[in-house]
Amino acid sequence: MLDRPSLATLTLTVNGTGHQVAARPFASLADTLREGLGLTGTKIGCDAGDCGACTVLIDGEQACACLVSTAQAEGRAVTTIEAAHPLVDRLRAAFLAHGAAQCGICTPGMIMAATDLLSRNAAPTKQDIEDGIGGVLCRCTGYVKIIEAIQDVARGANAFAPVAEAGCAVGTRIARADGLPKVQGTDRFGADFAPADALWLRAVRSPHAKARFTLGDLDAFRAAHPGLEAILAAKDIPGENSFGIFPTIKDQPVLAPGFVRYRGEAVLALVGTREAVEGVRDADLPIQWVIDTPLIGVEAGLAPGAPPLHPNIPDNVLTRGYLECGDVAEGHLLGAATAEGRFRTGFVEHAYIEPEAGYAVRIGDRVEVTACTQAAVMDQEEVARVVGVPMAQVRIVPTACGGGFGGKLDVSVQPLIAAAAWLLKRPVRIVYSRTESMASTTKRHPSKIHARMSADAEGRFTAYEMTGDFNTGAYASWGPTVANRVPVHATGPYKVPHVLNKTRAVHTNEVPAGAFRGFGVPQAAIAGETLIDDLAESLNIDRWAIRRINAIDHGDATPTGQILHASAGLPQCLDAVKADYDAMVAAADAHNAKGGRIVRGVGVACMWYGCGNTSMSNPSRMRITLTRDGRLTFLNGAVDIGQGSSTVLLQIAADALGLPTTQFDFVVGDTDRTYDAGKTSASRQTFVSGNASKLAGMDLRAKILALANAGPQAKLKLDGATLSVIDGDASRTIDLAALVADDQGIVLAGEGQYDPPTTVLDAKGQGIPYATYGFAAQVAEVEIDRLLGTIRVKRIVAAHDVGRAINPTLTEGQIHGGIAQGLGLALMEEYLPGRTENLHDYLIPTAGDMPEIAIHLIEDTEPEGPFGAKGVGEPALVATAPAILGAIRHAVGVRMTEVPVLPHKLWEAMQAKGMQAKEAAE
Amino acid sequence: MRYFRPTTLAEALEIRASHDVTVLAGGTDVYPVRTARRAWGDPTHKDVLDISAVPGLKGITEETDRWRLGALTTWTELARAELPALFDGYAQAACDVGGVQVQNLGTLAGNIVTASPAGDGIPNLMALDAQVELVSRAGTRTLPYAAFATGYRQTALKADEIVTAILVPKLDGARSTFLKLGARKYLVISIAMVSVVVATDAAGRISTARIAVGACSAVAQRLGTLEAELVGVPLEEASSVVTAAHLGDLQPIDDVRATAAYRLAAAEALVRDALSDLAATDARRAA
Ligand SMILES: Cc1cc2nc3c(=O)[nH]c(=O)nc-3n(C[C@H](O)[C@H](O)[C@H](O)COP(=O)(O)OP(=O)(O)OC[C@H]3O[C@@H](n4cnc5c(N)ncnc54)[C@H](O)[C@@H]3O)c2cc1C
Ligand code: FES
Ligand code: FES
Questions:
Q1: Which domain CATH number covers A588?
Q2: Does the distance separating the beta carbons of A1 and B36 come in below 8 Å?
Q3: Residues A726 and A866 grouped into a single domain
Q4: Across the interface, do A62 and B101 touch by the CB < 8 Å criterion?
Q5: Cβ proximity of B187 and B209 under 8 Å
Q6: Inter-chain contact A67–B269, Cβ cutoff 8 Å?
Q7: What is the pTM of this model?
Q8: DSSP H helical ranges for A594-716
Q9: Which H/E stretch holds residue B141?
Q10: H helix intervals, A561-612
Q11: Same domain (yes/no): A779, A885
């Protein structure tokens, strides 16, 4: 026992069973459970104690399995999510019923933490629950439904989600179709499985933001390191060594070709046994660096004479966005008041709890990539390009995705493992570390916005004008999308006759900024909503009232000249929060009148968000098949990243067809088996893929009805291979086994395709960029310690026009999660390369940071949407930060123009204001 | 890399003396450090001396004039222990460290050997006038905490020594409190923190005050001048004695978490709050 050899046979007791396992004694318990025993229900989100995804019970007490050595776990009782345990079972059921698992990557850790809590404290308060799960981070749910699920179990309630009958799925709170494996710990994420003989790949990344390098004798290095099968460099990439979101901007290398443009860029790929690739010290590799001064921040990128990052972009301006309507100078003149401000936001990290992972296999002249992603077909294109084969030779099989929020739209691991598997003809797997994920993958664009806004004496907006510079980092990624989406949305959801919005996406030697829930709109909303509060103050109009006066409504034109004919529910959203807003303002004013150190404030903000890609075709195509043995399969190419598209689309398809959701099998995202549904982004899946799903269901239904010669009101019943069509006297049954089948046994199939109607924007940004928009109004109440500058968000009232809530539980979950991310953006999150590139220093909200949330779902039906629905994924986040900033201002009278408002930032702003007041008094 | 897991203290000390090892207790600092190094391509690690199987290093025991806190005592064990009010602050810190799954692993000695300026245990040990018991093959020595902590992440621990216990002298009628300031609720590194131990005489006047501030200098510091001025002051008036000058010796830094000026102002507010809280607790107990 004294001196353990480096690889020993250790005995672990897991879930009551003894296991002999060969492991290194210093390997973490989490690693040994996963890689040694195949118990992959225990997740690794950070490998450093910061996320709690690896929480297990050791002798009945919760512990991070990533912080315990395997040797220390010997002789102790380890309990994991895989356990058969009555309390765990009840938690599983409650999590499922409440929608407490979205992506599900945090769920095993949450359930284990809750098991520990409830076995120690059978009647916990809400505070006890927060304390008990406070060490497990969830990026999707905002913790609300998790806490409700735990409360239910503590109460002894039996939580069951309703099961919808045929034709009644839309609008019902059914449990997630993919939820059971998530609560059982059996869902398979990118790092959870790979062929047993897979080699490992580790990327060697640049520690410098800008440098040139030369490579020495890599072959000699490899030969000296047994277990290393290959060291790949730029020259080894079989196809094009480049990728990028836009077909015309493939600017990012898979492996850097002799120079790097940001810290974290991949330089080499080590392929071999896990021990070999992890054992290499980067400093020992023959890489000679010549370090250069990087361009940090948009000012540096735009400075005259700044060296261009890309030779074809001499001024480092990747794209310009532009919108003009009316005459903005004229508009300002019409105003009785004008407000102006300069605003700044930083890099924000998606912080999904699952770092990127997956594996690739070469099968003959095809390569198959199984990895977490938000965009299977885009991955297929990129991999085909990098490997140098036609798309048909690439198959993408999405794994469960442990959160995405835009960060898994771009390829990350895929080109690396595909190229390696192709070249070595061996399966190759990869698992990013937390820091690697944070340092190398995309972020929210830092923004620098200057805006002016005018309103007449009645408070009617007359002009809005903004210029925004967005730091897109070293590579384009989604920079053009941000630059184009912002001008359209920057005014906010208001009637503004004169508008001039200009944006630029600027290259710097920083991490690429890409897509992140809202594509620049959250940043723009901070500027716009603050100016509205300014105008309200100058004109002495209530902050809610000025928004209501200007709220865009049915029949109004947007700044792009689009008339909103339907589903423009902002006025209803504002009306829904009015009573709460008034009561909260009155309560805060009364509280503050008493004086004291803790002050309260209330803020209100609105948002809108166009569903789907800006002025671009973004079609989706869905298929439903019925086999001769009665198997009904929904072939759905839309990846579910936790937001629930697999469930929502199923509800839509099921109702369109007229059979219950429980009778469907489903296949998600596999590019060999499903059509292109487009990417899971831009809040488009419910709307765009929802329409395609509905059409597919209707198509299959029409074929069945035609076969039965039945009328449109007929009811369907599927029982084994017998399909009954019930239509009064015309009822009949179809024996599926008797129908002609194709080579896969399919006897009937329905297909649907949908592309939202949009038009190209002209040179002035005029046109129809989106078929429909989501709207919201949120009210935030904060409590501030005036001495410490600490801010506690107490309550958020959120009204969202979602057209139709296909599954209200999932819709609420999106709103809760969006609010949590908005709160993080406002108060704590900032990614600083090299400084906050782990979850210890990069702070996201914990269970104890969330406000009480009340939601009003407004259903202003979208006639173009499936059953009236539109998207909610991104809208949820946009209004939160500006509402919180408004509340801070109401409480302490300072107008914060930079986020995050960390305690010291607020304190300094309050000091400055105090000084000014003092000077003014003297 | 070798991994030693001795089951006697003598063996552990033997290995400690003869090998260049990383001591491993609860692992809550050792593993994150390993992960951070690996993230930028340094997989090397010293041999490991896992002391968690060494008997006699766990648990809290009462001795004649002091309390003995075994090195391997976890935060959770501290928080659950039945201890006099003198330990209220330290026990509060135990509940503020990370989340429960870190509190169940992390040890009291590990926290002081890591010696992070943001270590939550540290100002408490200063205010408790704690001593650190260090053992090597050569014998046992005891250092006051202030002598043990020598600088930013530096201690007087010698390469052949192991911390075996933290020793806290009894103080009649004393109670304590701890306040931590961070940018979120759980899993948060302190921006500033304060630990206060006070004892009062029959008339409610302060007879002993020990106040330490953490995260505002490389090593947490006691506020000696303030402590001296507080003697004889009624506890309920103590917070009004505090001035910015009492914190003048602190040398906080600017970093991603806060600025130096803010840290100083916050620490001052926290010292006042801690004194008021203690007075309020007294008032509540009296009522
Ligand atoms: C997510 C997370 C959050 C955290 N939050 C906080 C926080 O809020 N506040 C805070 O103060 N800390 C925090 N910590 C740090 C940590 O939990 C504590 O410092 C802990 O007490 C260290 O104890 P350990 O037993 O885990 O130490 P280990 O990791 O085992 O060891 C830490 C160091 O001490 C040495 N060592 C340990 N025991 C001995 C001994 N008996 N003799 C000699 N050397 C020894 C080790 O060699 C190592 O250098 C956090 C850690 C994590 C992972
Ligand atoms: S993986 Fe263990 S805490 Fe994150
Ligand atoms: S559901 Fe918690 S992280 Fe996704």
A1: 3.30.365.10
A2: no
A3: no
A4: yes
A5: no
A6: no
A7: 0.97
A8: 645-657, 690-708
A9: strand B139-144
A10: 570-593
A11: yes
Q: Which helix (H) or strand (E) holds A423?
A: helix A414-424
Interface test with B, best of A9, A50, A72 (most B CBs within 10 A): A72
Residue A307 domain flag:
no
CB A799 within 8 A of CB A856: yes
Q: Which ligand is nearest to the CA of A431?
A: 2
Q: How far is the CA of A101 from the centre of ligand 2 (A)?
A: 18
CATH number of B1-50: 3.30.43
Pocket of ligand 3 (CB under 6 A): A 101-106, 138-141, 353, 403, 642
Q: Give the domain-ending residue among A60, A79, A98.
A: A79
The CA distance from A919 to the nearest CA of chain B, in Å, is 21
Question: Which 3 state secondary structure label does DSSP give A661?
Answer: helix
Tell me how many domains chain A contains.
5
User: Does residue A686 lie in a domain region?
Assistant: yes
What is the C-alpha to C-alpha distance for residues A242 and A385, in angstroms, rounded to an integer? Answer: 8
pLDDT band at residue A681, thresholds of 50, 70 and 90?
confident
Q: Are residues A208 and A275 in the same domain?
A: yes
Atom of ligand 2 nearest to the CA of A44: 1
Ligand 3 atom nearest residue A403's Cα: 4
Do residues A383 and A396 touch, judged by C-beta distance below 8 A?
Answer: yes
Residues 410-449 of A with CB under 8 A from B: 433-436, 439
pLDDT at B16 over 70: yes
Q: What is the CATH number of the domain that holds A36?
A: 3.10.20.30
Secondary element (H or E) of residue A219: helix A218-223
A711 and A636 in one domain?
yes
* A329 closest CA partner among A320, A318, A319, A338: A338
pLDDT above 50: residue A1:
no
Enclosing domain of residue A770: 447-613+763-914
Q: Which of A52, A283, A439 shows the shortest C-beta gap to B101?
A: A52
- Token couple for A249: 């901007």
DSSP string across B192-226: EEEEEEEEE-TTSBEEEEEEEEESSSSS-EE-HHH
The verdict on A237 and A382 lying in the same domain is: yes
Kindly report, residue by residue over B250-261, the tens digit of the pLDDT: 999 888 889 999
Together in a domain, A225 and A362 = yes
Contact list in A for residue B29 (CB cut-off 8 A) is none
Rounded distance between C-alpha atoms, residue A790 and residue A888, angstroms: 10
- CATH number at B174-286: 3.30.390.50
Residue B45's nearest CA partner among A27, A67, A633, A595 is A27
CATH 3.30.43 residue ranges of chain B are 1-50
List where CATH 3.30.390.50 sits in chain B: 174-286
The pLDDT of residue A682 is 65
Residue A173's CATH number: 1.10.150.120
**SS3 state at A70:** helix
Q: Measured between alpha carbons, how far is A840 from B176 in angstroms, rounded to an integer?
A: 29
Asked if this assembly's ipTM is beyond 0.95, the reply is yes
What pLDDT is attached to residue B257? 87
CB contacts of B4 in chain A (<8 Å) are 2-4
Looking at chain A, the whole-number percentage of residues with pLDDT higher than 70 is: 99
CA of B163 relative to ligand 3 center, distance in Å? 40
3-state secondary structure of A324: strand
Nearest to A846 among B39, B185, B259 (CB): B185
Q: Are A611 and A683 in contact (CB under 8 A)?
A: yes
Segment A536-573, tens digit of pLDDT: 999 999 999 999 999 999 999 999 999 999 999 999 99
DSSP string, A93-125: HHHHHHT--SS-SSHHHHHHHHHHHHHH-SS--
Last residue of a domain, one of A695, A720, A754: A754
Give the ligand whose atoms come closest to the C-alpha of residue B178: 1
Indicate if A462 and A394 belong to the same structural domain: no
